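wait is this the right file?? whatever heres the structure
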C-alpha cells in the first residue's frame, strides 16, 4: 500500500517560517506530480504548490516568492518551505501525489496525506 505521511505543521508567528515535509512509502517505482494544498474552515481547498518529477515548480502568484517546493525522488519526499508567514496562511495543509507506479507496474491515482495544521498568529 502507498501512504503519504506529513510532518512539520504547527504554530508560527507572522513573519516566521515553517517547513512541511511529506514522505511517500510503499513499493513505489515512480511518482508523478507532487504538491501541497490547503483548506481553511469554510473555504475551498486550494493549490499551494506543485512540482513535476523533473523539478518544475508551479505556484499561485500570491504565494510566489514566499513558498518554495522541492522534491527528492530518491527519498520519495516533497517539502514545502514557507517563509514570511501571514495569518491568512492558517489552514490544514495536505500533501498530494497525482499518480504512482508501483514496483509491479500498476498505476495508482490521487493519493492524499491526512493533513497537518498550520496556524499563524499576528
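ok assuming it is, sequence goes like this
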Amino acid at each position: 500500500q502507498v501512504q503519504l505521511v506529513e510532518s512539520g505543521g504547527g504554530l508560527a508567528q507572522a513573519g516566521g517560517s515553517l517547513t512541511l515535509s511529506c514522505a511517500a512509502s510503499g513499493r513505489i517505482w515512480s511518482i508523478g506530480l507532487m504538491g501541497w494544498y490547503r483548506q481553511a474552515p469554510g473555504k475551498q481547498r486550494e493549490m499551494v504548490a506543485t512540482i513535476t518529477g523533473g523539478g518544475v515548480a508551479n505556484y499561485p502568484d500570491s504565494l510566489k516568492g514566499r513558498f518554495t517546493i522541492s522534491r527528492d525522488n530518491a527519498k520519495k519526499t516533497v517539502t514545502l518551505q514557507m517563509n514570511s508567514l501571514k495569518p491568512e496562511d492558517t489552514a490544514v495543509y495536505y500533501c498530494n501525489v497525482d499518480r504512482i507506479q508501483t514496483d509491479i507496474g500498476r498505476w495508482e491515482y490521487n493519493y492524499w496525506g491526512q493533513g497537518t495544521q498550520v496556524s499563524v498568529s499576528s
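The mean pLDDT is 96. so i think its the right one actually
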